[in-house]
Hints:
There is one protein chain. By secondary structure, the protein is mostly beta strands. The protein has one domain (44-178). 13% of the residues lie in helices and 43% in strands. The chain is built from one helix and twelve strands.
Amino acid sequence: xxxxxxxxxxxxxxxxxxxxxxxxxxxxxxxxxxxxxxxxxxxxxxxxxxxxxxxxxxxxxxxxxxxxxxxxxxxxxxxxxxxxxxxxxxxxxxxxxxxxxxxxxxxxxxxxxxxxxxxxxxxxxxxxxxxxxxxxxxxxxxxxxxxxxxxxxxxxxxxxxxxxxxxxxxxxxxxxxxx
Length: 179
């Protein structure tokens, strides 16, 4: 079923539940936003996706085995061709006839708490702030805890440590082959 609201530039579509088609409802406002609601029988457990065109894309999940509940990407259309400081990570928006490139400013992932896990380092949220070249890792609070300072890691340090680990792995493989 499709309903249109021409003076608001809005379209709302409702879909039946089918085995291979997971979309439940779509709300689209021309050149501004698109909200997708999904049935709960998707393999990736995605239940909601919102695309604020040119600004942000975020998704909500339910029942993921890795306990992921939220994921977002914040975009910046300003300065895509101006050579800003740091590394730019472009993303194309195909909502237009001519795809527009946006610079990714920030990415976020949130995780729900696992009551069975008693460890202190349960990740609550990870924020990759690419415009400030920093990664913030927030942890779930212990019982009775009010505040916990997030871990702050430079974005480039993550890539450098990954490259070093890969090089060490290649060296150990080469040594084992020689023996």
